[in-house]
Amino acid sequence: MKYIISGTNRPGSNSLKISKILQALYKEIGEETEIIDLQEFPLKEIDGTQYSKNKPTWLEDANKKMIDSDGLIFVVPEYNGSMPGILKLFIDHFEYPRVFVHRPVSFIGIGGMFAGLRPVEHCQQVFGYRNSFVFPDRIFLTNVWTMLENDQINNTEIMKLLRDQAKDFSTFVRALKTNGLHPNSDAK
Ligand SMILES: Cc1cc2nc3c(=O)[nH]c(=O)nc-3n(C[C@H](O)[C@H](O)[C@H](O)COP(=O)(O)O)c2cc1C
Question: pTM above 0.70?
């Protein structure tokens, strides 16, 4: 299973809309995915004591899912030149290094004029530091709100980019698993 992380808790977010579009594209190629929606992040239960243990159930479950996952697909919106704080908070509650090491990760940036380039590069720093396998073909959606109509993307070129990324990320993950480089590969 691959997980799509919708990188903000903003109600009505474009990240969640893009996450649902991605989920449909992965389904087209026979890949089941689940969306982790950060609107469900249990902020009220977080008091700083949960970094290593005693995580709220939702976070504990999310960690287990990620440890068992084939790969993680992040939809990263740009907030003030970086990723939203809630996304970094979520990442900081991953069981490290276990969730990160050799875990394949893929990124779609969304934003205004700069299309989420900065938050994706900040994520790449974090996951690069933690030795994840970062899929190189990132996608950036400029002025994302202009390309969404009835929660669908109205641009065939962008849809092709997203479709190709989904297909190629799946191949990337399969290659890592087949060759014993994936944390969950049978060959390990
Ligand atoms: C708090 C906040 C800060 C933002 N800062 C930036 C920014 O620095 N650069 C940018 O291009 N867009 C910025 N935007 C625009 C968002 O990237 C854009 O609206 C995107 O759709 C946000 O994702 P969301 O709809 O999933 O919340 C900001 C939006 C919000 C809500």
Answer: yes
Sign of the alpha-carbon torsion through 4, 11, 90, 36: negative
Alpha carbons 171 and 3: distance in angstroms, whole number: 16
27-59 tens-digit pLDDT: 999 999 999 999 999 999 998 888 877 899 999
Q: Residues near 49 by Cβ (< 8 Å), separated by ≥ 6?
A: none
Number of Cβ within 10 Å of residue 143's Cβ equals 12
Q: Looking at ligand 1, which residue's alpha carbon is closest to its atom 22?
A: 77
State yes or no: cis peptide before 97, omega within 30 of 0: yes
DSSP 23-76: HHHHHHTT--EEEEEGGG--GGG-SS-TTTS---HHHHHHHHHHHH-SEEEEEE
**What is the tally of helices (H) and strands (E) in the chain?**
5, 8
- Answer yes or no: are the C-beta atoms of 109 and 76 closer than 8 Å: yes
Question: Could you say which residues of the chain have pLDDT below 70?
Answer: 187-188
pLDDT in tens, 7-30: 999 999 999 999 999 999 999 999
Q: How far away, in angstroms, is 1 Cα from ligand 1 center? A: 29
Nearest to 114 by CA among 74, 141, 154, 80: 141
Nearest CA to ligand 1 atom 19: 111
